[in-house]
Amino acid sequence: MKESKKDVVRFAIAAQLIVSIALGFYNIFLGVAGVVIFVVLIIYYTKNTSIDEIKIDKAIDEIYSDLDKINQERMYEMPIAMSIVDNEGIIYWYNQAFGKAFKKEKEGLFKKSIIEELEFNLSDAVKADEFTFHYEERDYGVVTNAFSDKVHSFELLHFFDITEQSKQRQLYRKNSPLFCYIVIDNYDDIIEQIPSHKRSAILGKVDLKLNEWAKQLGSVIIEYESDRYLMIFERGKICALQKENFKILDEIREIENDEKVPITLSIGIGISESILGIIESQELSHSALDIALARGGDQAVVRQDEKMSFYGGKTEATEKRTKVKARVKAYGLKELIKESDHVLLMGHQNPDMDCLGSAVGLLGACKSLGKEGKIVIREINYSIKSLFDYLLENEAYQDAFITPKEAESYATKNTLLIILDTQTVNYLEMPSLVDQIPKIVVIDHHRRSGKAIKETLLSYTEAYASSTCELVTELLQYFDEKNQLNVIEANALMAGICMDTKMFTLKTGVRTFEAASYLKRKGADTLISKILLQDDLNTYTAKSDAVKNAKIYFDNIAISTFENNTDYGKVIAAQAADELLNIKGIVASFIILKNDEGLAISARSMGEVNVQVILETLGGGGHLAIAGAQFPGEKNLETGKELLLTAIKKYKKENGS
């Protein structure tokens, strides 16, 4: 209504101006008078209009002021804790709930730093989509809103109390079910070696102990195969199991029988920080069991997403009497080689005699099947130089070796990559080949680690074997191809076995000698192996110095430190560790080497001390009697020794020795 009146006044003033101009044509005085009246009207209208607008604006300001006052009062009284801070975390305003929540209402928080007073990470809160804050047994979800006054920037922080939700989430996680897979490792041996009238009693004892263990945990256990169990228990029980180092492993191992057959278990449990469905959860646990079995059994593996924790593994892997698995794997490998265009053979970085010998043995198998095979080697180190020179004496092997760069031209969809003497991608001569070639085979005798190659067409990993050369020799026996192994290749395989067994004195089983017997029939000579393993004078002198520096700890463990930046420093360390075992009273030896790369530890044992378990706590691994670890970038030998001594003390404490 008010706007329509203004429109009428504007129309009347405009009409007056038009009339004044028209009168000016007839009488100049009347025209001038009309214009003066028009000017007066304009001034009057403008003045009154400005006053009205000022009144309106003032009224609006008063309304907004009232609203701001109401909002400020409501914000101050809101049950949600709120505060305004600048970019430095200085608090410029906070409401009643904020002061009450953080118990600072008496001394006040105005103009104080929220970062210092509450230990609040402001930068993370601003960046994160979801940010939680813990303060004095309460949990808060924090939401931030940025604003500015054209000069300064501020953050409005909302603190939502989510303590109850957090408690419910923790309770759910604690009570969520975990799948635990259990396998009797040597069930076949029990069936074969223990008479039928005693067998049931032994297996009954195993079943009874597992059910008693399940009852103590308040869990459900199901025997779904004659040698396999599935146990389901609450996640909150896992900490107790880890703390006691899965003592069920020891209890089962201590079951006595007249035939002295050691009974061991493999256990796999999967845990995830994410919320998984039943299928994903059981798959994670089953993969943990696979790792426990691949590492030789007699242990529990707890897989927390990609992180692995190992418990047990106190005994050496039991040698399998049956060779059915070797025959099946040999058939599969033979077919894969036949179907491939090229075969690349690759081992670990700084390859040794076992690594190269096994590759040479399979190279002969590829030739017998009419397929081209190439061995990928970055450089020739001291460990394999004698075998490499021995091979190059024959023209047939002069084109058998390629560099990692040359290997890229062979990387096609139908190329077969055979990885030998390792299962870890990072240790390969050329790790990127694993991503470039889809068809992968792994043959190894080391215990599996958490970083093992996952996508393989065929995997033959047996921790009981003395060497990879032993496994390859077993496979070749089932190829049934004429001239698949000549004398040179047989000698290369024999040299690898001799190196890893220290001329058949360590880690040898019945199958080790059976493999050696097969190689002897193919023309292998242990004298040539002995020559290939000989050291030069400088190496022998350096090895003697490393042995001389050794000191005895815990009455029967020898530890030596030495520095060597040559290419054969690691070989010297390994050989020195072997030599220390020849000293009376020494049951385990550790050599700590310092070189340009950092520190490396070589460990050996007579079997009484499990050096593999000790060095696994330092990121290493291996076997019960042979293990190693590395500390890239570390240059202090004393630091390395202290870490090693701490690991040994932990091992002795856990094993009550």
From TrEMBL:
Reaction it catalyzes: 3',3'-c-di-AMP + H2O = 5'-O-phosphonoadenylyl-(3'->5')-adenosine + H(+)
Source taxon at top rank: Bacteria
Entry keyword annotation includes Cell membrane: yes
UniProt-annotated location(s): Cell membrane
Keywords: Cell membrane, Hydrolase, Membrane, Transmembrane, Transmembrane helix
DDH domain location: 343-497
Enzyme class: hydrolase
First-listed, main subcellular location of the protein, grouped into a coarse class: membrane
UniProt keyword Hydrolase present: yes
Pfam families xrefs: DHH, DHHA1, GGDEF_GdpP
Limits of the DHHA1 domain: 565-649
Classification via InterPro entries: DDH_dom (IPR001667), DHH_sf (IPR038763), DHHA1_dom (IPR003156), GdpP/PdeA (IPR014528), Oligoribo/pAp-PDE_c-di-AMP_PDE (IPR051319)
Residues passing through the membrane, by range: 12-45
EC annotation from Swiss-Prot or TrEMBL: 3.1.4.-
Protein purpose: Has phosphodiesterase (PDE) activity against cyclic-di-AMP (c-di-AMP).
Record-stated family: Belongs to the GdpP/PdeA phosphodiesterase family.
Record-given protein name: Cyclic-di-AMP phosphodiesterase
